Amino acid sequence: DAGVIQSPRHEVTEMGQEVTLRCKPISGHNSLFWYRQTMMRGLELLIYFNNNVPIDDSGMPEDRFSAKMPNASFSTLKIQPSEPRDSAVYFCASSFRAPSTDTQYFGPGTRLTVL
Amino acid sequence: QKEVEQNSGPLSVPEGAIASLNCTYSDRGSQSFFWYRQYSGKSPELIMSIYSNGDKEDGRFTAQLNKASQYVSLLIRDSQPSDSATYLCAYLEAGSYQLTFGKGTKLSVIP
């Protein structure tokens, strides 16, 4: 199994530009999570999908952030317009949700730098 | 508010010693507990999960859970320089999907 795949691995952009991060979860997993990690705040959950449906987006910081999951094998996280404070590592994780045994597997992350 | 507390470290131990990492959590509804290892510049990698009180051993790693004290720990025996990483504690509330992470303890194993 290839694991969770994310692209791009690194993104450098200028303030005001649109940024799109991509994720392919592990085949057969029915839950997908987008996290953001910074030194100050640690790992923060941004949004959670179950069976391609957004269940909880309360962690999305602002309307500038949006996420979609058009099918079971693909998700995007978009930031428009981007700001320097969005600089962080963004992780996608997937799991097969079963009672009491959810184990999340993380992708390699996208390191975003907004200048 | 749900919280996970970890000593940020760094925790330095000599090669071959036992490293002890500790974590306390605030949510009494927590059911499942996880230890993730994160090397610098890499993604978190699950190394242990524990669901019931007591000890769980996997190779050089032992997780210990005490739900009454809201405490979970990770012991690493015969520590190796390759164990140098940040260790993240996380828990999952019963019936929930959302992992709550601590900010991690940085471990340094000195050759």
Features:
heterodimer, A: 115 residues, 7-stranded mixed beta sheet, 4-stranded antiparallel beta sheet, 54% strand, globular, B: 111 residues, mainly beta
Structure description:
- By secondary structure, chain A is an all-beta fold.
- Chain A is built from no helices and eleven strands.
- In chain A, strands 2, 4, 5, 6, 9, 10 and 11 form a seven-stranded mixed β-sheet that branches.
- Chain B has 111 residues and is mainly beta.
- Chain B contains no helices and eleven strands.
- In chain B, strands 2, 4, 5, 9, 10 and 11 form a six-stranded mixed β-sheet that branches. In chain B, strands 1-3-8-7-6 form a five-stranded antiparallel β-sheet, with no helix packed on it.
- Chain A binds chain B through residues 31, 42-43, 45, 48, 50, 55-56, 91, 97, 99-109, and chain B through 31-32, 34, 36, 42-46, 49, 51, 88, 92, 94-95, 97-99, 101-104.
List the helices and strands and how they pair.
The complex is a heterodimer of chains A (115) and B (111).
Chain A (H helix, E strand, L loop, with lengths): L4 E3 L2 E4 L5 E6 L6 E8 L3 E9 L2 E4 L8 E7 L2 E6 L8 E8 L9 E2 L3 E5 L1
Parallel strand pairs in A: 2-11
Antiparallel strand pairs in A: 1-3, 3-8, 4-5, 4-9, 5-6, 7-8, 9-10, 9-11
Chain B lengths: L3 E2 L5 E4 L4 E7 L4 E9 L6 E6 L3 E5 L2 E6 L4 E6 L8 E9 L5 E3 L3 E6 L1
Q: Brief description of this entry?
A:
The complex is a heterodimer of chains A (115) and B (111). Chain A is mainly beta and 115 residues long.
The general outline of chain A is: globular
Q: Enumerate the spans of chain A where pLDDT stays under 50 for 5 or more consecutive residues.
A: none
Shape of chain B: globular
What is the end-to-end distance of chain B?
Answer: 40 Å
Rounded to the nearest angstrom, the distance between the terminal CA atoms of chain A is: 36 Å
Q: How much of the sequence of chain B is in beta strands?
A: over 45%
The helix/strand class of chain A is mainly beta
Major β-sheet profile of chain B: 6 strands, mixed
Uncertain segments of chain B are none
- How large is the radius of gyration of chain B? 13 Å
Q: What's the total helix number of chain B?
A: 0
Largest interface: A-B, 21 and 22 residues
What sequence of helices (H) and strands (E) makes up the elements of chain A? EEEEEEEEEEE
Number of strands of chain B: 11
DSSP strand tally of chain A: 11
**Biggest sheet details of chain A:** 7 strands, mixed
Element-by-element helix/strand order of chain B: EEEEEEEEEEE
Estimated radius of gyration of chain A: 13 Å
- Output the structural class of chain B: mainly beta
Strand content of chain A: over 45%
